């Protein structure tokens, strides 16, 4: 039974409060979406969890033990980060070997299999990889290391559309075959919305949402129908955005819906997580 | 009258042919989308245009002059690249000052205005910026330098959804007030589809598409209606993908449409550029 508990974490950099009294629990075998604007504090939180930096206040416990300078606990967590910690001239293959020393359950065969699927040449030097292939390399390490906690900071950064599709598929296969706790921090919210179970939203260093994705989505709804019918229905409502396809319009509305009041010809559907997010986090 | 001509460009790295006999013209005051899979050769092409690397064969002319070691020609081009060429400890403000020396028409007031809109602190050191804010910093430089050619390599890398929206808006304002030739290389195709005029697609080092976006989109169509009606209509067709909202389905179909054959209740609309791209570039 693996669990992570973040207790009243505050982190200051000089005068600037990057994280302000954040408390949350991450349960075993769940996929979390960690969302927030640029500069909200997401990466700071992930750096604190993995003891790359120290909190100003509060503590982070994994299975009851504090993460600070605790190698045994840290080896239960894999952090796919924007930074590169690999020696300059290391090849992809050498990095896999190196990782398998720190993560004893690293699955080399699976990693090689993923390299093939993503057309990553294992003989290439890490420093010579493009932005997209650097993400692919790190993401394969994250999927293959077989630890209870996998933290993914912008896993699809620079990935083309085909590779992003493939990544989401492989992540779900990995999760169903070897369940683990996964935290995905991403700005491509709509693409990730289908695989996230709980949403964590940080705004200017404060935790503002920690709820199942359904609860967040229930704060609004989408309504579809002919352009004129949708416009007349949403006239007095708080519309977050709209898409039109042909003569049809789909408007995203904030607020709860009184079902009795839906005119004929209009259809109510799930709202768009990205549009709700933009609303919740706008400055 | 500014024009760029890429003539039979081939670039090899050792045994590997990164670009294979590419020829294309970039016209004045047009927005191009440079699309391709990870590793297709997009960044190599941009590096060749800006003389960061040398072609194995062929030449690139700007207003009739070869770009190679030609400072006068190169000062007409701004390249927003993934790499950082700024001294380690430089602040955003200092970088603006530095840029205005190389680009005499650099608009400092406009740059400061954009910093405010994107909440970028001009006193921050460039190296301390997050991935998202590094993109914002470079994008502001690109918009403010006032040159005839602006090349944007993944301009929205790491930007949150709100900032991506703001970027597309500011880019269009900039383009309408001070027209220029803009090349956007991006993997977030659907978001950029509305601002691109011509699409350039490179596949494994070869130019496979260079056409107005409408021509590319005319290779397919989308059809919307009830799930059952759409399914029965697309049964014998090449479906690239589909979205459903409520009881409605929108399927993306490859091929041309015989208008006479559309059953009642179905509506034909513009297809999705990203889905067509995935189809055109799949290995």
UniProtKB/TrEMBL annotation, chains A, B:
Residues 4-229 form the ABC transporter domain. It holds the Pfam family ABC_tran. Keywords: ATP-binding, Nucleotide-binding. InterPro entries: AAA+_ATPase, ABC_transporter-like_ATP-bd, P-loop_NTPase. The keyword Nucleotide-binding applies. The keyword Nucleotide-binding applies. It comes from the Bacteria. One of its GO terms (molecular function) is ATP hydrolysis activity. This is ABC transporter related. It comes from Ruminiclostridium cellulolyticum (strain ATCC 35319 / DSM 5812 / JCM 6584 / H10) (Clostridium cellulolyticum). The lineage of its organism: Bacteria, Bacillati, Bacillota, Clostridia, Eubacteriales.
């Amino acid at each position: 039974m693996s669990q992570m508990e973040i207790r009243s974490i505050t982190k200051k950099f000089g005068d600037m409060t990057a994280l302000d009294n954040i408390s949350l629990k991450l349960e075993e075998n769940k996929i979390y979406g960690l969302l927030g604007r640029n500069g909200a504090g997401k990466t700071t939180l992930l750096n604190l969890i993995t003891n790359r930096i120290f909190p100003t206040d509060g503590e982070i416990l994994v299975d009851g033990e504090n993460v600070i300078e605790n190698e045994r606990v840290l080896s239960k967590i894999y952090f796919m980060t924007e930074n590169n910690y690999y020696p300059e001239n290391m090849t992809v293959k050498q990095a896999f070997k190196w990782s398998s020393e720190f993560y004893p359950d690293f699955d080399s065969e699976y990693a090689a299999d993923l390299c093939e699927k993503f057309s990553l040449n294992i003989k290439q030097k890490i420093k010579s990889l493009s932005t997209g292939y650097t993400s692919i390399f790190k993401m394969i390490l994250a999927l293959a290391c077989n630890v209870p906690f996998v933290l993914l900071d912008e896993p699809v950064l620079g990935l083309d559309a085909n590779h992003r599709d493939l990544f989401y598929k492989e992540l779900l296969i990995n999760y169903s075959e070897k369940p683990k706790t996964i935290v995905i921090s991403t700005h491509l919210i709509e693409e990730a919305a289908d695989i996230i179970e709980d949403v964590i939203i940080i705004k200017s260093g404060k935790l503002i949402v920690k709820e199942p994705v359904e609860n967040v989505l229930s704060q609004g709804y989408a309504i579809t129908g002919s352009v004129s019918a949708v416009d007349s229905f949403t006239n007095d409502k708080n519309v977050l955005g709209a898409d039109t396809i042909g003569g049809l319009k789909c408007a995203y509305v904030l607020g709860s819906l009184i079902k009795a009041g839906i005119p004929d010809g209009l259809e109510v559907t799930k709202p768009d997580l990205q549009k709700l997010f933009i609303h919740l986090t706008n400055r």
